[in-house]
From TrEMBL:
Domain of life: Eukaryota
Name the UniProt record assigns to this protein: DC-UbP/UBTD2 N-terminal domain-containing protein
Domain DC-UbP/UBTD2 N-terminal positions: 16-113
Location of region: Disordered: 1-31
Organism per entry: Carpinus fangiana
Amino acid sequence: MGCAGSSQAKGDGTVKKIRKPKPWKHPQPITKTHLMQLRDEFWDTAPHYGGRKEIWDALRAAAEADLTLAQAIVDSAGVIVQSADLTICYDERGAKYELPKYVLSEPTNLIRDS
């Protein structure tokens, strides 16, 4: 019998279902345009943090998709989801991928552009 946390390490096929991130608040009210700029900057620079570009591409596609499609994307890319909201993931080689909440959902204090 293994310990409770050993199931992922065994590779027994358990898949963590992804879910929407919990509501969060940006330090200051932010416009949709500014949020999109932050997201674009993150995705443009993400491959420079390490890991494989194809995994970053899959994570971006998953972040921008609905939950059902996002689950299919991470499963087919071989992404190991540690945090169900996709904030912490790994690839099959063990490289860590951290996603900020602003690329996964909108803050509660989002200001609509006029």
